[in-house]
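Give me the fold.
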Amino acid sequence: MKSTRRPLRNRIARFLRAYESGHDFSRADRSPLVSTSERASAREEPDLGRFCPASLSSEESRQTPDARYFKHPRISQGAGFCALLICALLAGCNVGPKYNPPVETAPAVYKESPDQFKEADGWKVAQPQDAALRGNWWEIYNQPELNALEEQLNIDNLSIRQSFENFMEARALVREARAQYFPTLSIGPAFTQSRTSSNVGLQNGAGNTGTTTTQAATTGNGVSNTENHLYSLPLEASWEPDLWDKVRNTVRSNQYQAQLSAADLENERLSEQASLAQFYFEIRGQDELQRILDATVAADKQDYELEKARYETGVDQEISVVEAQTTLESAQSAAINLGVARAQYEHAIATLIGKPASSFSMPVKAMVTAPPPIPIGLPSQLLERRPDIAAAERNMASANAQIGVAKAAFYPTLDLSATGGLESSTIKHLFDWSSRFWSVGPSISELVYDGGLRRATVHQYIATYNANVAAYRQSVLNAVQQVEDNLAAVRILADQINHQRVAVDSAQMFLKLEQGRYDTGIDPYIDVITAQTTLLSDQQQLANLQVQQMTASVQLIEALGGGWDRSQLPTPGQVTAKPSAADTAMDH
């Protein structure tokens, strides 16, 4: 018997060491196509489903290295139980549904792309058509001040920081779920002192007797009180093997949720970056409007002084002075009003870069330019470039894993528990060999009746999954809509700006001609004011259209996903890895 059990223990030990080191037992896993990284990933989270007996043919079972040994007729009953227990521990099977992401078909081209409109003029998309934005997308505008602000935003924006901490929380939940793979160990040193009642077991004056007596005191009736001392040093271990992949599916669900959180972080970052760029161009547009109105105020002031002098010399009537003064005051009022919007945009930028609005200011710089060519790529690439679409897909995968968690509740659970340690009435003998005690044994439990709770739970998670599928498809439709909307906006505004420039040129000519007719006495001064008002209105409209086109181009880049693509999404292994000490430190 001794010669039989020793090889058994050795073989079991070798089997477990091979399993823990990531040895691949199935024929498929011995393929040279399996990469080293994939094997490392398998060692991180061993796929217990590979060892499910139902998944192996009889021929493959015979080819398993130690299968023939477990059938050896000389194995004792206890050794057979150990072998059966090992097979049970390795026989985890995934009872949940396999995840298959829905296939979304995107249109071949964008309908609103300027390439689809031969008469389009003023703005073109970048070539080649399959190009994509990379990295710091805002650098295509060639604005050093904007670049510096964007860099500050990436570091100091508090909304991004909040999303990052949400991501770190999601990563912690993954490690919490993985902890269920392993047994729990607890130790509880204890000392108890007890004293029995002298009246317990008292019959006809008979005294009480104690089994372990450290101190006895005799009462007046001749009955002794017993005091007991007990020193114990127990160690308890328990483990629930993941037979039906309940823990594995929980880990997967949390990993997918962590990836979703990472995509949300990138989506928040993109949204904040786009908002900053839009506010920047809005401020520059306000500065351009301020320049136009300041020039108008200066011209109106000059006209007012001239009309006032003409009236005082009797050349012109008082009504011309009043008209000139009214025009001047209206222009000054409009110029003052521009400060409201500029101040608000400036305060918004300060908040975005994590600074108090009271301590931040931007220098005045009048500027309106046409947006640069933007590489829009193909609609099919949009599914890989939008972080919100990636988040919706990961949410769908997480819901699918939760169905597996719910289905695992239909199957029995196996509990392995063991208790051992030292126990003695005196501390002197606590560490003696004879003070040891232990107990070990498995238990299997199965819920027989729950009133339909488990089935309803499965139906709940199936409904959640179906809702997430609909949300994913809706996010794809929304993404395509947003790209089409902003493509149309940038293209149409470019055409409108071309016509508006012609209108400004015509208004300037109108004012020049009307000024000549007034100087020669043909037309009254009111006609000059009409020409001035027309020119100012056309100039303001042109500046507003140019700002609108620039902000629409920023929104187009945001709709395209900025410089992000799905390859930047962290892998399950990366979200499971232990974070650095800096990432887990408390902020003060």
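The first strand starts at residue 184 and ends at 187.
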